[in-house]
From TrEMBL:
This is Uncharacterized protein. InterPro entries: Kiwellin-like, RlpA-like_sf. CDD domains: DPBB_kiwellin-like. The keyword DNA-binding does not apply. It comes from the Eukaryota. Keywords: Secreted, Signal. Its main location: secreted. Coiled coil: none annotated. Pfam families: KWL1. Belongs to the kiwellin family. It is found in: Secreted.
Length: 103
């Protein structure tokens, strides 16, 4: 049994999180589930980017999600485009400490 989160918790400032690399294209391992339809701002490496919060942390333990458990609520999945926009060197892609806030 796993704790699941239907949406990111409200924040009043910058919240610490771990950025992970996911594909949001058809057949990719990111996205799906209900969207919160709120933009968040992810900040790292001296840069910021606004993205739509997809809130997929309730999904997991199935073939579509590689039978991995649902994500904790401090994970921010992002596509290659977000990593590039943040200027994070490709050798550091995978998991990266970031902050996020409501946009």
């Amino acid at each position: 049994m796993y704790t699941t989160y239907k949406c990111s918790p409200p924040v009043t400032g910058n919240a610490k999180a771990v950025l992970t690399l996911n594909s949001f294209q058809k057949g990719g391992d990111g996205g799906g589930g209900d969207r919160c339809l709120n933009f968040i701002t992810i900040s790292a490496n001296g840069r910021s980017v606004a993205v739509l919060d997809e809130c997929d942390s309730t999904m997991g333990c199935d073939g579509e999600h590689d039978y991995q458990p649902p994500c904790p609520n401090n994970i921010v999945d992002a596509s290659k485009a977000v990593w590039e926009a943040l200027g994070i060197p490709e050798g550091d892609w995978g998991e990266y400490d970031v902050t996020w806030s409501d946009a």
